[in-house]
Each structure stands twice: as C-alpha cells, then as structure tokens.
Amino acid sequence: MSINHSNTVSRINSPKTTYQYDEFDKDFIRERVAEFREQVRRRLEGSLTEEEFRPFRLMNGLYLQLHAYMLRVAIPYGTLTSQQMRRLAEIADRWDKGYGHFTTRQNLQYNWPKLIDTPDILEALAEVDMHAIQTSGNCIRNVTADHFAGVAADEIEDPRPTAEFLRQWASAHPEFSFLPRKFKIAITGATHDRAATLAHDIGLRLVKNTSGDVGYCVIIGGGLGRSPFIGKIIREYVPRTELLAYLEAIMRVYNRYGRRDNKYKARIKILVHEKGIETIRAAVEKEFATMDHTAFQQDPQEFERVAASFVSPPYEALPSESSKLTKARLETPAFDHFVSVNVSEHKIAGYAIVTVSLKPINGIPGDATSHQMRILADACDRFGFGELRVSHEQNIILPHVKKDDLFALWQTLTAADLATANAGLVSDIISCPGLDYCSLATARSIPIAQAISQRFSDMARQRRIGKLGIKISGCINACGHHHIGAIGVLGLEKKGQESYQITLGGDPGFSASIGEILGPGVSADQVPEVIEHLVDFYLAERHETEAFIDTWRRLGHARFKDVLRREGEDGADI
Amino acid sequence: MALISKGDFVRDPWRRLADEEAFPENGKLIVSYERLDNALKARGANGDIGVFIDNTLEIDKLTPALPKLGLIAIAFPSFADGRGFSLARLVRREGYRGELRASGRLLADQYAHALGCGFDTIEIPDDLAQRQDETQWRAAIRVHQRTYQRGYISSGSILDARRKATQ
Ligand code: SF4
Q1: Model-level pTM?
Q2: Is A74 close to ligand 1, i.e. is its CB under 6 Å away?
Q3: Of the options 3.20.20.240, 3.30.413.10, 2.30.110.20, 3.40.50.1360, the CATH number for the domain spanning A151-309
Q4: Which of A40, A48, A276, A453 is the most exposed place for a label (fewest CB within 10 A)?
C-alpha cells in the first residue's frame, strides 16, 4: 500500500547533496520489507514464536513499549531530504497520531503503529529510500555522524561518505547480526566532537597522518547505560583502505568473546574493561593480521563511488557579511537572539547553519508534529537546497541557508512554533521518553524536562547563562545520555517514589568525561530548584565567558556539593 | 532432529555418537571433541569421522585435525547466540572443505546468515522442524538474494554486481 501524494515528489530543481540509492540499494531494502512482511505473517500463523520473532522485529526497528509498539526509523548520519521529511509526516498522519519523536541517535520514533501496519509503513519508507533496518536489536545499529558534517568550518573531511560506506557494510551482515548486544558506531570528521565518539561502542575520527593522508583514529568500548565508560583508542591511525578489515577484526573478537551470560555485561565496553584494552588490542591486531584482506581490495573504489554522491550544493559566490541580515537583526530583537543562539558558522562565505530547536518551552523534547515536519521540508526546499539534518541533541538542522534569507526563514519558523532560540542553552534539554512511553523506565523524564524549561522560561536569563547541556534519563539505561550532560538527571525509583539523581561534569566531546553524583536523590518537584541553585552558583563564580563545565572543573565537585548542603541546612529537603 | 541441505529436509548419513556409547566398526560418526583423538586413531582419516564442537572452541585446537575430518558440527545453544557464525568463518579460513553443519535451534530466518558464513547443512530439533517446514527453509534461501559484504558466500554480492554494471 503506497502513498502517492504528488507533494512527495522531490522538487525537480533540488540538487542531490546526499547519497543516492542505486537500483541495488533499492532492491535491498525492498527485499528486507518483503522479508519482514513474511515474518509478520509467520508470527501470526505460529511458525515463529514471540521469542523467535523478537530479534527480527527489532532488526526492523519494531519495539514493544509500555502501551503499544514503537517503530524506530533510521536517519543514517542524520541526513534527510525534504522529500523524505514529507514522507515521515505522511506516515505520522496515516499510521500514527500525527507526530514523531526524534531521538538522540538520529532516528525517528513513531509511538503508536500497529504490528499489522508496519510492513506497509516500511514499504512507504522504502519508496523514499528510507528504512528501519537495524535501529534496534543485537546488531550494528544506525551509524551516526556529526550533524554539521560537510558544512562545518572545523572539518578535516565530511564523515558521511564513511558513514554510508559503513551502513552498507553493516546491513544484514551474515556474521554480525546476532551479537552479544547492540553495537553503536559514531563518526566525526571535525576538530570538535559533535558525535560523542567517546561514548560509542566504536567511535571513529577522521585524522590525517604525517604524510597528509586521511584515515581513522579508532576508539572502542565507550558507552553509557548502567556502567558508563569513556572509549579508549585502540589504534591511532587506520588507513582508509583498511577500515572495513579493521572493523571486521574488532567485530569478530567481540562476537566471539563478548559476554553472553549477562545482558548487562554484554557490551564491548565491559569486554574492554574486564580484559583490558591491551589484551583486546592484541586480539584485534592478531585477527587483523591473520584475516584474508583480498575481500577488501575493492573498498577504495566503492568508497569513491559513495563519496561522489555527497556533492556540495551549488552555492552562490556571496560576500561573507549580509547587510540584509545586519539590518534585520537591529530591527527585530527576537530575531537577533535567534541568530546569536541558533545560527552557526558555515564553511562557505555568505551561508549559515541553522538549528531548529525541537525544545519549545514546556514542550516534549524531540517531538515534531506532521505539520511541523512539512513546514521544515518546505523551508529547506525554499532556503536550504532541500536538505535537513537531525542532531543527536534532538534538533533539526538546515545546513545551508543564505545569510540574506535568514530573516525570512525565521518568520516561517516562528509561525510554526519552531523558532525557539535556545539551541545549546539550558532549556535545550535532551530527554529520553521515560515512564510516559518506555517499559523499562523507573521514573518520568519528559515532565522533568518540561518543568526545568519552565523554570528557565526567561530567555534573557538563559542567554546570560549561556551554553549548558542538561540531559535526562528515565532509568539507568541512560538513553538520555545523562552521564555526559554538564548537568545530568537520572530518574530512579526508591520505595515506590520517583527519585532523581543529579550528576555534574559530564562532557560528550573530545575531552569526554562521565558526570559525578552530586548527592542523595531528590524528588521530581525539587529537580528544577536544585538545578537553579547550581546554575546561580555557577553564574556567581564563573570567570567571564567560562562554560559551566569549566567552572566546575576549576572549582571542583566539592564546591558544588556545598551549594546544596547549605541549601539543605536552610530547610530545603535535599 | 531434522537435517536441511540446500533447502530440503534430507536423510542424515551421519550418526551422533553419545559419549558413553561404544565405538562401532563402521559408519559415519560424529563424536564429541573430547573423543576426537581416539576416534581418529581407531578409524584413521578416511573422512568417516566428524566432530561436534562448542561455539567457544579455539580454532587452533582443531586445526591439526581438519584435513582428517568429514564433518564439523558447531553447536548453536540458542538462535540468538551468533558465535557459531564467527567460528564457521574461522574453520573455513583454516582451509576446511568438508561438510560444516550448524546444530541447534537455528531459524529459517537465519539460513542465509549460516550459508554466508560457510555452513552447508543445518540440523534442528523436530519441534522446530514442524513449525518451520521445508517450504519455509526453501523460501529462506531466496530471501537474501543480495548482500553488501564481500568475502562471504552469497548468491548475489551487490558490490560485485555494481562493479559489473559500471564496467
Ligand atoms: S533511559 Fe530507560 S526510561 Fe529512558 S528510554 Fe532508555 S530504557 Fe527507557
């Protein structure tokens, strides 16, 4: 059952700036849809038990949640065309409740699909070269990348060709589809780590060696969850020609030796932790030296073919400053704030990167209605060469907007409640779905995010505070990445009550660190107040433009703990 | 147990010898890894001896015996345990050409994975064979027509097909 609205057809003049599926890629995902349709049928007739069906539905993105199934659609390396975004809106309207939820791993989740409809939904996705393959299950997951890839001013190389190259390699892998546990890969090509490469099973960084050739620094064993670990470098430099071989060696070592006796100890981070990075490195290097490399000989040509798809849009030659922009900023303060907070430097003069916040004050972080999805699709057709990005901060990016067009874009966004000027600020909160949707949750997280954002609803105050990442998880599985939030909030359950543990000092970047626990848990309604006290203390203590994390590092954890202790003595029950 | 070869349920010419069973004079026998040395001594290397191994066995423990073996059966303790796929790759990499069998609760949905990693036959318990009959296994061969990986056995490598198409 396909959707054939005429508005799905991509605008003829929109340039191809991302990977284009060829007939083989299209056949492949159609085959997967047909396979899943058959699996659903066999499940319903009893050929597959629920337990047997489970890994296959997970491999197709279908989760069983608290109230219903949830379908998780992959947005590989966070790149979407306007046509694809429109299709996501259509699916939300037709098979869900008119909205979708963008996640911290560049996926989109529908919270209310019916099992019987999912093959049709997957088919509707396949028509626009999208899928839900390996967004879940114990396999190699959707490969994520820097959401500013290809446009950032600080980039060594666009990481997306590598990510696409890996997506294909990891898809329906004969050997690595039944791993001990899920396996997540992230990649960045920039000098700022916007992809949290140290918090993934494998993190890849594009680097140059001494002769100037681009290769990969390979990091393994990072991860959050109940035992958080910062990844460790297993090899400083792997040449591009060897990348797949090297990753295959890692996967084989993990598949053979990763623990399978306890699902909480099954991630590669535990293997690295228990055996030590030296032992794992030796095992990987031995496998790498023993394996047959002839299978990889064609990799460079294949990589080139993939890379050739990622062409820059036809930028105009523009002056780097736009007088139109300067004038609009002077005339409209709200727009001026939007520009200073949500607009980033583009590598091409006269262009800018725009972050559209999916965190309106009091909203649900990462949710977008079908109407908003269409507005974004139209906006990027009009102002951004038909391309969008999804960030792991659960926001949407228009990666190439002319500075001259920023004001018109802002007006469009404002009309759709999409112009919240809080990118990176204290109300740009990452939150997992928590108890409102998730069957594993021990506490609510969305309402906590809403309460914090309300507490800081004064935007001028938010700007004064500056960049500050708050991340919230509804249980120790840490999908909200609370460990790497400058302020992390973890919802637990203590004696039938929700109790929130606050951590400070987490950092997702190259200087990654895991947050430290502030003290005993606090109740749901105390969380905003506690955070407010911490922020006030930071404001009083910070040196000029010093970031929260830097003040915390300079003063030390104990000083921040003291803030709360003093509050406690004043009578607050902390 | 049911044996699947090329999508068909076939008769098994091999017999799995229990560890307490006495060693018969002839016939194709599958013995445990612990009994392998004795079995090979008793029967020589005529290809009538096969071995049943755990999916955790280190490959170098098996390498010396490989040329003498007529069958290797790798245990799949559960369909979710993918170690057997990697071990199969290692067995093939060591140059083993005889029959490689996956033995356990493998699902038809994993047939392509098993073939891709070098297995020839699949041995499943009867209750599973009843639910997943021959038609499902036959269909499963055709399900993964095209694969992205190189170096695995597949009816249609996308990467090779692509190269052909552009040459
Ligand atoms: S952190 Fe826990 S509650 Fe939140 S989405 Fe993950 S499993 Fe669910």
Answers
A1: 0.93
A2: no
A3: 3.30.413.10
A4: A276
